[in-house]
Write a structure and sequence with these properties.
The mean pLDDT is 93. This protein is an alpha/beta fold and 234 residues long. It is 42% helix and 19% strand. It starts with a strand and ends with a strand.
Length: 234
């Protein structure tokens, strides 16, 4: 069994599905990661621990540390600039992803949903590209394959808004209607690995601390996905 997760920046893997990735790798699933950029426009730390000139190198190192913690066996960097994804034609970006999928032949593909978790334009675009690539991939592969989107329950988003800890730098997040969430994974056994992976992204400390404020919610120990597409092969 093999899974490929498709995201935009270093840390996306840990925030969105770190517990799930650790759970899969513990069960012997081979997990690989596609990361479109090295997060050059991200935070420098609080207080700063690097410079804008060196941030890409530092974030790559942080991602390498996080992936080792989670058990990811390989990272594919697409070599794109942070913030540039919306300007790239969908086909061009999708073809880059498809090439990797065809080479790796994963059973499961995971990427961002329509809101991109935080409405970040890069997140939304890589989610669209991953979905577009999957449509082609599932017609090229002779085995059962499934595409999942990372989503946030609308009920959880409402709770976060009431506490004032929802991340809305890129616009209001509505969340996915709870009834449309198809897959809820209990990550209680791997939450410690998720937190350790998150903390390895030291430049993004502010966002990590915001996430840790959710610990009083029961949803903190779950990750949520929507099965979007699968082929008809049994």
């Amino acid at each position: 069994m093999k899974a490929v997760f498709i995201f935009a920046h270093p840390d996306d893997e840990s925030f969105s599905s770190g517990g799930t990735i650790a759970k899969l790798t513990q069960k012997g699933v081979v997990v690989k990661l596609i990361t479109a950029t090295k997060g050059e426009e991200g935070q420098l730390g609080e207080p700063p621990i690097t410079t804008r000139e060196n941030i890409a190198e530092i974030r790559e190192k942080e991602l390498n540390t996080a992936t080792k913690i989670l058990g990811i066996s390989k990272i594919y960097f697409l070599g794109l600039k942070d913030g540039s994804l919306p300007k790239i034609p969908l086909k061009n970006l999708s073809d880059k992803v498809l090439k990797i999928l065809v080479a790796e032949k994963p059973n499961i593909i995971v990427t961002f949903g329509k809101e991109g978790a935080s409405r970040h334009p890069d997140h939304i675009k890589i989610g669209k590209a991953g979905t577009h690539a999957f449509r082609k991939y599932m017609n090229l592969i002779n085995k059962k394959v499934k595409l999942y989107h990372v989503v946030s329950p609308r009920s959880l988003v409402k709770k976060l808004k009431k506490m004032g800890i929802v991340y809305n730098a890129f616009g209001e997040i509505k969340g996915t209607p709870d009834s449309k969430i198809t897959t809820i994974l209990d990550i209680s056994e791997t939450i410690d690995k998720k937190i350790k992976a998150l903390k390895s992204h030291k430049t993004q400390r502010k966002d990590v601390e915001r996430f840790l404020k959710r610990s009083d919610f029961k949803e903190y120990r779950y990750e949520f996905f929507q099965l979007v597409m699968e082929n008809s092969i049994i």
